[in-house]
Amino acid sequence: MELGYARVSTTKQDLERQINALTAAGIEPAKVYVDKKSGATTDRPGLQALLEYARDGDAIVVHTLDRLGRTVRDTLNLIHDLRARGIGVRNLADPIRIDSSDPDDPMAQLSVVLLALFAQMERTYTLERAAHARQVATAKGRRTGRPSVVSESQLAHAIQLRDGGATISEIVTKTGLTRSTLYRHLPPKPDEPVTVADL
């Protein structure tokens, strides 16, 4: 029996493209397991349910191999564990097609290693490109990341209250900002003068 697995890294991402590809490949929707969780861990509810359900002779079908794991090691370990249980892995959309139902096929083994390596390299390069883009934007004075939930007037009011001796609880009540937001945005309090030279 073929079982499908689809994964995206966050709840804001959409699984539809992967699910459509899996059902178009003939997998019943009831046999497609899904996760909206990072591939950094195998502790994913959909993956765990799939692994419990899969039996000797079954094949797990994924859109691309990187849906199984984020790193080469994780992906290879998972495929090795599945192979030991007699469960194959097949992909649909990678440039190299794999079918690990024959564990002794050296080409299938090489394909799995190459695809896992390419997926990990792509992730590394994506992170590097994003970090570089943030550095360039910061150097040009542009703010990166999510829009701030704190306006300049709210922050100025919070600083004024803090410098006037208000506690964090009082600042939270008076500004309507959460405690974590205040800790994230309030600049450090200036050091108290220690000597006359510090005045």
UniProtKB/TrEMBL annotation:
SUPFAM superfamilies registered for this protein in UniProt: Homeodomain-like (SSF46689), Resolvase-like (SSF53041)
Pfam families for this protein: HTH_7, Resolvase
Molecular functions (GO terms): DNA binding; DNA strand exchange activity
A GO BP entry: DNA integration
Alphabetical keyword list: DNA integration, DNA recombination, DNA-binding
Source organism, top-level taxon: Bacteria
Protein name: Recombinase family protein
Organism ancestry: Bacteria, Bacillati, Actinomycetota, Actinomycetes, Mycobacteriales
